[in-house]
Amino acid sequence: MIYPTGWLTSLRSRFNSSLKVKLLIALFAIGFVPYLFILLYTLNLGEAKIIQSITQTQYAQVDKIKRDVEQQMTRLENEVLFLSQLDLMDDMIVGDIDKRISRLLTQKKRDMNLDLELYCIDPVNRVIASSSLENLQQPFTDAQRVKEAESQHHTYYFDNETINLFSPIHASFEDQRFLGYLLLTYRLDDLNRFNLHQNSVRSILVNASDTSNALQQQQMAVLKLDGDNGDYTTDEEMVLYKAVDGVLQGWYAVYMIKKSSALAFLDDFIIFLGVMSVIGLLFIALFSNWISNQIVKPVVALTTIAEKIVITEDYSNEVAATSADEIGQLSRAFNTLVRQTDNALGALEEENRLRLQRFVQLIGIFNRIIKTQSEEECIEITLSELEKLISERSFSFTRRAAPPEMMAIAIFTRDYDTGERHYYGAITLGGETSNDEYELQFYASIGTMIMLQLDQIGLVKRTREVSKAKSVFISHMSHELRTPLHAIITSSQYLITYGTLAEEQLPVVANVENSAQHLLSMINDIIDVARLEAGKVPVAIVPLRLENIEAMLLEVTTMLEPLAEEKEIILTYRRESSDDLMIESDLMIESDLKLLKQILINLLSNAIKFTTEGTIILRLDADDQTLKLHICDTGIGIEADDITQVFNDFTQVREGNQQGSGLGLSISRKLARLLGGDVTLSSEGAGKGAEATVTLRRV
Questions:
Q1: What does the pLDDT look like over 642-653, one tens digit per residue?
Q2: Does a structural domain hold residue 38?
């Protein structure tokens, strides 16, 4: 059909120039197009999308079944491994004559509440302990299957009705001594607890790797399982499946939903949507025409006035508000907005000018205050700048408290000994009291800046005094204390070695030497702390290989062995197996060997000091990023709440006759951090020993 050119031009022009036509078309489209889209979408893609949506939703159920089964089997594996490593298993050496292992296995079976049996099998394939007493002393017939599983690096094997998990048992006092196996036999029928059986939903577990079971083969053929996971739809069901990992590798968790139940509501929805489309079409047409008439007319009036204000910048023009509805409210709000805008523009322009001027002046004053070097200079500069800035007021400084009726800037300074603030003085402002909020804020900012600068001047002065006092103290301590102490130690050692002392005099002289040695050690620790804080400890970072580190560890262990032997403590060095940890021959760190050695001597000496009996083990291990040195002792231990305190200078948590300056751990941590590492401490509590760990970054 051919339309006249003039008619098309008229229609296009009316559409472009008429808000009512646009609004009518827009409202009609907004109301009707969604109905049309939903109807077409439902007819063409509804079933496929619903199936897809249900499939995506139900994958969570498949994941849950898969996860629950995997967690069940992982739990059984962990239980077998845990039981096989118990010290109680040493009873297998004597055939579990007191039945302790059997009672443990019986209790463990009762706790797990599963259809399973637990056995302990000795090296000659005889059951010597079991969760069921009737199995005791019976021969174990699956020994060959255990060997085959071990050769494949498995800890399990299957038969027709059960899965069998096992773990070798070794003597706790001799790792190389093989005692037998711990075997857990779990009935596969017990996995049915994870299956669902409802009206429209069911799930099963299928063993795809068991080709000997005709039922399993039939299920695999019907289910069409292909790959590790997937889904497909038949005429009757939607099927989702996922492969199970871990011990049950080769099994599938299969989830099936009846298609008829899932799509039952689709037909009803299509009928309902068709009826509502017809009714909605009529309602939308009528409502769109009415609402467009109500909106367009007042909007035209608002547009006219707004254009006039923009052109003339005359904010006295207002819109006539004749209705009480939202359009009328909009008109009245528009008139109010125009009036307030006119007033605000004038006030804002003046306020911005004053604020900018005051801001620039305040920055200038701050700039001059922060350059002052003394308290007197700070006050003088402030008074001078204020008099230049505000000539109508007279400013002065007083140490006394200003009267309440007088405008003044109160100044307080901080006492760094008590942490309190004390009154320093006030800058008085001559003239009348002001109620201007911005002027008061200006003076408050000046006062805050003065107090900050005075605090900074005081802090710098105090820091210099403290630094000077510390340097003098350390200098005197180094010369005046260590020199006579060396003389005392030398004289005591001479009397003990070459003197003709009576037997009862030897302990007295030995006590003098020990006390002098202890005091000298404390003085050296204090000097070390001072050098660390002053940054005067030289650090020579060099590459260190595993052989360099181990040589140093053996040297430190040998050095401190006599001190440990005096207390009948066993001090040993041990390196973890490279099969379990990343300790290779090319392992390298960058550190200072001398400082690292000092850290270990401090930590090992600390462990010996607080251990009365037992063992101290120096152990080395590593991962892909760090190298760690562990010092484990069986000493007095420490509560968890006290661990952070012992790294503070001069801190000892325990009271009593413990010797030391309380600086060993503090110095060790500071030295370690100087090397780019750290020192940490852990303990299970008082009386349960402690473990100090030195952590260093690998290259």
A1: 887 777 656 666
A2: no
For residue 344, tell me if it sits in a domain. Answer: no
Q: Looking at residue 3, what is its pLDDT?
A: 46
**What is the C-alpha separation between 54 and 238, in angstroms, rounded?**
9
Three-state DSSP at 206 gives: strand
What is the residue type of 692?
Answer: A
To which residue do tokens 């050095």 refer? 559
Cα distances (angstroms) measured from residue 178 to each of 65, 128, 156, 580: 38, 15, 19, 20
What would the two tokens of residue 603 be?
A: 């930590």
Distance from C-alpha of 386 to C-alpha of 613, rounded to nearest angstrom: 74
Q: Residue 42 in 3-state DSSP?
A: helix
Task: Give the per-residue pLDDT at 467.
Answer: 64
Give dist(CA 331, CA 324) in Å, integer: 10
State whether 549 and 619 are in the same domain.
Answer: yes
Cβ atoms within 10 A of the Cβ of 453, count?
A: 21
Domain assignment present for 309 = no
pLDDT, tens digit, for every residue of 151-175? 888 888 888 788 999 999 998 888 8
**Does residue 638 contact residue 646 with C-beta atoms inside 8 Å?**
yes
Instruction: Please state, in angstroms and as integers, the Cα–Cα distance from residue 211 to each residue in 157, 215, 218, 368, 472, following that order.
Output: 15, 9, 10, 91, 88
CATH code, 615: 3.30.565.10
Q: Where are the alpha helices (DSSP H) in 189-256?
A: 214-223
- pLDDT on residue 184: 92
State the Cα–Cα distance between residues 177 and 180, nearest whole angstrom. Answer: 9
- Residue 535 zone, left/alpha/beta (φ > 0; ψ -120 to 50; rest): left
Give every CB contact of residue 331 below 8 A, 6+ residues apart in sequence: 298, 301, 302, 319, 320, 321
Q: Which amino acid appears at position 552 of this protein?
A: M
What is the model's pLDDT at position 534?
A: 59
Partners of 232 in the beta sheet? 239
Helix (H) or strand (E) holding 555: helix 546-566
Say whether both 381 and 497 belong to one domain: yes
Which residues in 327-443 belong to E strands, given as ranges? 395-398, 408-414, 421-429
Q: Is the dihedral of CA 471, 475, 478, 481 positive or negative?
A: negative
Residue (of 90, 110, 278) closest to 175 by Cα position: 90
One domain, residues 152 and 252: no
Domain with 174 in it:
85-192
Copy the structure tokens of residue 571: 């001090």
CA distance 180 to 91: 11
Handedness of CA 493, 499, 500, 505 (dihedral sign): negative
Task: Give the CA radius of gyration of the chain.
Answer: 44
Q: In terms of C-beta density within 10 A (0-12 exposed, 13-18 middle, 19 or more buried), how is residue 126 classed?
A: middle
pTM (two decimals) = 0.37
Residues 666, 601 within the same domain: yes
Low-confidence ranges of the chain (pLDDT < 50): 1-3, 11, 15, 579-582, 655-657
Q: Are 553 and 646 part of one and the same domain?
A: yes
Which residues, 6 or more positions from 560, have their beta carbon under 8 angstroms from its beta carbon?
Answer: 571, 601, 604, 605, 608
Q: How far apart are CA 526 and CA 518, in angstroms?
A: 13
Q: Are 381 and 372 in contact (CB under 8 A)?
A: yes
Q: What's residue 524's pLDDT?
A: 67
